[in-house]
Write a structure and sequence with these properties.
Layout lengths: L2 H13 L2 H8 L3 H15 L4 E3 L4 E3 L1 H29 L3 E7 L7 H10 L5 E7 L8
Parallel strand pairs: 3-4
Antiparallel strand pairs: 1-2
C-alpha cells in the first residue's frame, strides 16, 4: 500500500462518489475505480459498498479511513521535519537548574536564548544540591 493509494481512497471516502472524487484528484473516473479495486484486492477486503445510486464505506473502509488520515498526517510531519533539519542547523543546550530559578531566572534565560537566529533545542534537568551534571 502506498501513500498515493491512501490519498485516492480518502478522496472517494470523503466524496462518497467516484465521479466527484476523480474530478477532485484530477483523474478519469475509470482509472480511480480501478485504483480502488486494486487497493481492495491488495488488502483483501471490500472498502466500499457500491450500488448504481450510492457509495458507502464498509466497516473495513471506515477503519482504513481513520488509519489513512493518521498515516498521511505522519507523512506530512516527517517531510516537514526532514526539510527543517536540512534547512537549519539545530543546536542542543543542556541546562541544569535549581528550583529557585524556575519562576524568574530560567524563563527569562530561555526567552533570551530562544531569540537567537539559530534554533536551539533545550534539555532541562532539575538539579539538587547533591546532583552532578554531565
Amino acid at each position: 500500500m502506498e501513500f498515493q493509494q491512501l490519498k485516492l481512497f480518502l478522496a472517494v471516502a470523503d466524496a462518497l462518489h467516484f465521479g466527484r472524487a476523480a474530478q477532485q484528484v484530477g483523474m478519469a473516473q475509470p482509472h480511480l475505480s480501478r485504483a480502488i479495486a486494486r487497493l481492495e484486492e491488495e488488502i483483501g477486503v471490500r472498502l466500499f459498498d457500491r450500488t448504481s445510486r450510492r457509495v458507502a464505506l464498509t466497516a473495513a473502509g471506515e477503519r482504513l479511513r481513520e488509519e489513512a488520515i493518521e498515516m498521511l498526517q505522519a507523512e506530512r510531519r516527517a517531510q516537514q521535519a526532514a526539510r527543517a533539519a536540512g534547512q537549519q542547523r539545530r543546536r542542543r543546550l543542556r541546562i541544569a537548574y535549581v528550583s529557585a530559578a524556575l519562576y524568574r531566572a530560567l524563563p527569562a534565560a530561555l526567552r533570551s536564548l530562544s531569540s537567537s537566529s539559530e534554533p536551539i533545542e533545550f534539555a532541562l534537568q532539575e538539579a539538587t544540591p547533591t546532583s552532578s551534571w554531565r
